[in-house]
Amino acid sequence: MDEKINKAAQWIKEAKYVVAFTGAGISVPSGIPDFRSPGGLWSHFDPWQVCSDWALQHNPKGVWEFLLEAVFMFNKAEPNPAHLSLAELERRGVLKCIITQNIDGLHQRAGSKNVIEFHGGCTKFYCNDCGKNYSLENLKKLTRENIPWMCTDCGSIVRPDIVFFGEQIPPSALFSSQEHCSKADLMLIIGTSGEVAPANTLPTIVKQNSGKIIEINLGETAYESVSDIRFNRGAEEVLPLIVSKIGGKN
Ligand SMILES: [Zn+2]
Predict the structure, then answer these.
(1) What is the residue range of 192's domain?
(2) Taking ligand 1, which is a single-atom ion, which protein residues have CB atoms under 5 Å away?
């Protein structure tokens, strides 16, 4: 373990362009179960019924029952040492950006500035019809009794700025992620097993450019064949150890 920590820290120090690619696993120690795990949101909500383009049209109350529970869970959670370590690496000029599949906002709350939310985030809201913007403050007035949240201008459903099932990844998130990956000579893959497309194609871009991959994931993943160093442990344990071995750039 110590040897691998030292090697990972050395590689990160030597790299010119480090990006992190994160998924549900990084937020589990913060109290947000992976949506797809037992106890996760998909264990008691059907994604298509509450988080799809169909649901926005046909089941607005169900959409908001799900969103209230999700946003409540996100707000209650705190960034853990893995989120804080990545924020620290950015502050030291080591990490260029985080590409996250998470919608919980914990990277930003940990202090990370350059975060690409591949599937959007649950902090901004807009009307699904007329596009009027709403803030998280507006949402705090919502209760189970007054959902769904409807637009005050046109009466259509208000939605979070996240990618629902059946919708495309916003081109800006896709292109900027691909651009960062094409520049990267080292990627940290953290808490994502590589099951969700097209996000799971990003490590391939790094690999095609001869970049190195350090993977910190519990259990089996789709990335084992591309990972150069692999930690089968929690990132909240491994990342602080790596960071303690790395100084600032210049
Ligand atoms: Zn509207």
Answers:
(1) 1-32+79-119+169-250
(2) 127, 129-130, 132, 151, 153-154, 156
